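Hi R.,

As promised on Friday, here is the backbone we talked about, encoded as C-alpha cells. Could you run it through your design pipeline when you get a chance and send me back a sequence?
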C-alpha cells in the first residue's frame, strides 16, 4: 500500500505494483507510470509519500493491571472506511473520563474494568468488517479488477443517491451507533433507549439536549416532568438534573415520557429508569462510588 498527499489537499491511496512490492526504497516516481494512466491525472507536486503493509489485528487484552492499550496499540486494520482515527479517539475518551474520575476519587476503581469490555468488542467487530471490505478490493486477477472498477463504484453510487442510505452510512462511519449494552455501567430501558446507548439528540426550541453535555460530568435527563422525589434525590447527591419539555421531537428521538436517563460524561446513557426510581438511582451511585461536581462545589 502507498498513501500520497498531493498539492490541493488531495490524498491518494493505492496498491504498490507487484513487481515493486519487495522493494523498500520506493518513491512516487516509481509508481507514477501506474497511477497517472489509471486515474487519468497528471501529478505536478507531491507533498508526502510513504509505503506500508496492511495488518488486521486486535490485542488479546486492553487492560492488564495498571497498563492500558488504546488506539493503534490495541487494534490495527486497513484504511477501508477511514475508521482508525475515530476508533482511537473513542478509546481515549472512554478511558480518559474513567481514569480522571478514579484519580479524583469520584468513582470506584472498578469502573476501569468497563474500558476493555466496552472497547475491545467494537475493535474486533471493526477489524473483521474492514478486513471483509478490504480483501476483495485488493484481490489480484480479474475478480479484484472487477470489484475495484465496477462493483464497488456501482454500489457506492447507488448508496449515496438516497437520503436514507446516506444517513445510514453517516451513522456507521461517524460511529454514533456504538453502544455498550453489556457494560457493567449499562442498565435499564425506556422507550427505544437502552442503557449503553449513545444519548439521542433532539432539538428543544432554540437549543438542543446536548448542550448540558458540555459539563463533561454525570447528569440526569428527564423528558417530561421530574417528580419531587427525583429532584430531591439528585439534589442530595449533587447530581445535575435537566428536565426537558415533552414534545413530538422527544418521542421521535426514542425517549419515553417522564422516564429518567442517567448520562455518563462521554454522552452514553448508563442507567434508564422508566419510573424515576430514586432507590435504583441511589443504588447505582453507591455501587460505582460516584461523586459529582455539584457535590464538590458544595463542599
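Update: got your reply. Pasting your designed sequence below so it's all in one thread:
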Amino acid at each position: 500500500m502507498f498513501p500520497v498527499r498531493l498539492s490541493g489537499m488531495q490524498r491518494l491511496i493505492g496498491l504498490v505494483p507487484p513487481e515493486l512490492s519487495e522493494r523498500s526504497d520506493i518513491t512516487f516516481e516509481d509508481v507514477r507510470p501506474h497511477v497517472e494512466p489509471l486515474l487519468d491525472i497528471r501529478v505536478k507536486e507531491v507533498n508526502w509519500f510513504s509505503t506500508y503493509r496492511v495488518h488486521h489485528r486486535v490485542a488479546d487484552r486492553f487492560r492488564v493491571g495498571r497498563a492500558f492499550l488504546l488506539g493503534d496499540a490495541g487494534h490495527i486494520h486497513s484504511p477501508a472506511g477511514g475508521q482508525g482515527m475515530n476508533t482511537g479517539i473513542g478509546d481515549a475518551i472512554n478511558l480518559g473520563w474513567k481514569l480522571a474520575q478514579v484519580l479524583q476519587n469520584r468513582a470506584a476503581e472498578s469502573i476501569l474494568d468497563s474500558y476493555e469490555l466496552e472497547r475491545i468488542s467494537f475493535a474486533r467487530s471493526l477489524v473483521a468488517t474492514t478486513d471483509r471490505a478490504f480483501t476483495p478490493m485488493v484481490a489480484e486477477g480479474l475478480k479484484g479488477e472487477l470489484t475495484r472498477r465496477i462493483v464497488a463504484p456501482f454500489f457506492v453510487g447507488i448508496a449515496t443517491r438516497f437520503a436514507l442510505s446516506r444517513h445510514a452510512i453517516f451513522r456507521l462511519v461517524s460511529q454514533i451507533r456504538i453502544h455498550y449494552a453489556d457494560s457493567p455501567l449499562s442498565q435499564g430501558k425506556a422507550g427505544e433507549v437502552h442503557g449503553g446507548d449513545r444519548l439521542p439528540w433532539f432539538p428543544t426550541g432554540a437549543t438542543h439536549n446536548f448542550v448540558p453535555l458540555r459539563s463533561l460530568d454525570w447528569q440526569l435527563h428527564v423528558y417530561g416532568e421530574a417528580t419531587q422525589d427525583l429532584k430531591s434525590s439528585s439534589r442530595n447527591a449533587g447530581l445535575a438534573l435537566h428536565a426537558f419539555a415533552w414534545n413530538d421531537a422527544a418521542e421521535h428521538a426514542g425517549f419515553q415520557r417522564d422516564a429518567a436517563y442517567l448520562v455518563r460524561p462521554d454522552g452514553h446513557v448508563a442507567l434508564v429508569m422508566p419510573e424515576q426510581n430514586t432507590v435504583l438511582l441511589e443504588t447505582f451511585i453507591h455501587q460505582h462510588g460516584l461523586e459529582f461536581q455539584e457535590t464538590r462545589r458544595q463542599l
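One thing I noticed while checking it: The chain has nine helices and 15 strands.

Thanks again,
M.
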